[in-house]
Specification:
Helices cover about 55% and strands about 10% of the residues. The chain has about 550 residues and is α+β, with helices and mostly antiparallel strands. Among the domains are: about 160 residues, Fructose-1,6-Bisphosphatase, Chain A, domain 1, CATH 3.30.540; about 100 residues, no CATH class. β1 and β2 form a beta hairpin.
């Protein structure tokens, strides 16, 4: 019995194991279709991945494309301006030049191929949505984007042709807009910089038998790219450009205080030496009412600045204020509200560093300056006087750059560069122009240029002849006659440049003060244009 029982148990165990194997086999058989499907999917995925990788490896990289273009570059062709008049009328070009175009260029400076790609795409979409209403401008902008994103340095000539095409289109359509540009090498590759302007006037100035175009411009964009010059010349375009914003800022900061004789004692030694001659020359251009408005405004602004400095020097408790720069029209609305709140806090704390009486006076003077439309117009006329002197200088460059004409300077110092000779010619011409000679000489005396700069060599030579005792001494009374005699001795010509009456009588004042950015300097590229060489990304202010 015991042995029979053990046999039965052993048989039952074998039967149970056989059933388990059958069940496992059946389960494996049921999963075979799924495994087959998974294998097929894996094989297909692997084949697709291999094909995609092979295609990507076969496709030329950006480096390959740049290398191919560098070996066989395409010759840039001028963009032929054409446009749809109906479409042009529907475009808001002020928004394009003041915001949309500069914002897209700024996006190009901030990693447009990686983290900044979506931002660049949004900026370009906004630009093309407005300016692209005209099919020709849409095509121009898309081509400009292709070249700028592939490489500013590699496609600099074509980018130049496209932006020139933009300006030619604006001119042909009779639209008062202009875009200046520069392609600059940096540690992160080529960068495109733009400056957008509204054309205030486009006039012709006769020089001998020929006439030359002069454009008066005012900035409409608000970026950190600020000019370090008053004017620039393009002999290729046969046009001189006068930057009204920079001219107006110089007139506001330097010329305006000298219109009030009582402020001479507060001026620098050079300003005191020039002030009588400048007031006399200004009286030939500006009316008595205009000069009186300038004198009163200069005195009022001077009193405002002195009061602010006095408050800043006060000791004791309470809030106070420090103002780096006082605009021509006094403190801004934001500045006035800050002063009013500070005075209220001081009054509660019984502190007299900035009193309620001080705040009322500062706010009242600022409101008087900002609301004086006569003063604003007078300052614009003062800036126009200087702008005419700048135009004379730039027009002389145009006249000297006529194809086939060689500028010879018999009495110039030996070894003087051609660029320096051109600057000598332009400075002497501006000093020989009636009604703007003294303001041109004053502006030249105030120029701070590098020792190795062509303008510096020219100024040192010309001022050494006309101002032998230095710019701190009064200018000669017969400046125009001396300059014309020097023009004859150096260049064997008597060809004074007088700006016509079609030149604007007033220059728009800048909305805000924008000093030249650090890292900029004026350089020359042959005879084409003066350019800026920034070493930082372009951004909005």
């Amino acid at each position: 019995m015991p042995s029979a029982s053990r046999a039965a148990i052993h048989s039952n165990v074998e039967t149970h194991e056989a059933h388990a194997e059958v069940i496992a086999w059946a389960r494996r058989q049921s999963l075979r279709p799924l495994r087959l499907l998974a294998s097929v999917c894996l094989m297909v995925s692997t084949a697709v991945a291999i094909g995609w990788i092979s295609q990507r490896m076969a496709r030329p990289t950006r480096f390959d494309e740049d290398l191919a273009l560098a070996k066989a570059p395409m010759k840039p062709e001028p963009w032929l301006p054409c446009f749809d008049p109906n479409a042009i009328e529907s475009i808001d070009f002020e928004a394009v030049h003041a915001h949309l175009l500069p914002e897209w260029v700024i996006a190009l400076h901030h990693d447009p191929y990686s983290v900044g790609s979506s931002r660049e795409q949004r900026r370009f979409d906004a630009l093309i949505a407005e300016a692209g209403k005209d099919p020709n401008l849409a095509l121009l902008l898309r081509r400009l984007r292709d070249r700028a994103t592939l490489g500013v340095s590699l496609h600099a000539l074509e980018i130049s042709q496209l932006l020139d095409g933009w300006n030619h289109t604006m001119q042909q359509a009779g639209l008062p807009w202009y875009v200046a540009y520069d392609s600059v090498e940096s540690a992160r590759g080529g960068r495109l910089y733009t400056r957008c302007y509204h054309v205030q006037a486009d006039v012709l100035v006769p020089v001998g038998p020929q006439t030359h175009g002069v454009r008066l411009l005012s900035r409409v964009d608000s970026t950190n790219v600020a000019e370090a010059f008053f004017g620039q010349t393009s002999t290729e375009e046969q046009r001189a450009l006068v930057v009204g914003d920079r001219v107006a800022e110089f007139a506001l900061e330097r010329l305006w205080p000298m219109m009030e004789p009582q402020l001479d004692a507060k001026c620098s030694e050079m300003d005191r030496a020039f002030a009588p001659a400048l007031r006399h020359e200004a009286s030939q251009w500006l009316s008595d009412d205009t000069l009186e408005s300038l004198r009163q405004g200069a005195m009022l602004r001077h009193q405002l600045i002195e009061r602010l400095q006095e408050i800043e020097r006060k000791k004791g408790c309470g809030r106070w204020l420090a103002v780096d720069h006082v605009p021509w029209n006094g403190l801004s609305e934001k500045g006035r509200s800050i002063i009013a709140r500070a005075a209220q806090v001081n009054e509660r704390k019984r502190c007299d560093r900035l009193t309620h009486k001080d705040a009322q006076w500062l706010i009242g003077v600022s409101e008087a300056l900002s609301s004086d439309e006569k003063l604003k117009d007078s300052l614009g006329q003062l800036a126009a006087w200087l702008a005419r002197a700048v135009a004379s200088h730039e027009v002389r460059h145009l006249a000297d750059g006529v194809p086939g004409r060689v500028l010879t300077c018999d009495a110039c110092p030996e070894g003087m560069s051609e660029r320096a000779k051109a600057e000598v010619s332009a400075y002497v011409a501006s000093f020989a122009s009636k009604r703007t000679a003294f303001v041109a000489l004053y502006q030249a005396c105030g120029v701070d240029v590098p020792v190795s700069h062509g303008s510096g060599d020219a100024l040192r030579f010309v001022l050494g002849v006309l101002m032998p005792q230095g710019c701190e001494s009064p200018p000669p009374n017969n400046l125009v006659e001396q300059a014309r005699l020097l023009d004859w001795i150096l260049f064997k010509r008597v060809q004074p440049i007088e700006i016509t009456d079609t030149f604007p009588k007033s220059v728009p004042l800048p909305k805000e003060r924008t000093p030249p950015s650090l890292g900029f300097e004026t350089v020359a590229q042959g005879q084409k244009r003066h350019s800026l060489r920034p070493a930082f990304p372009m951004r909005s202010l």
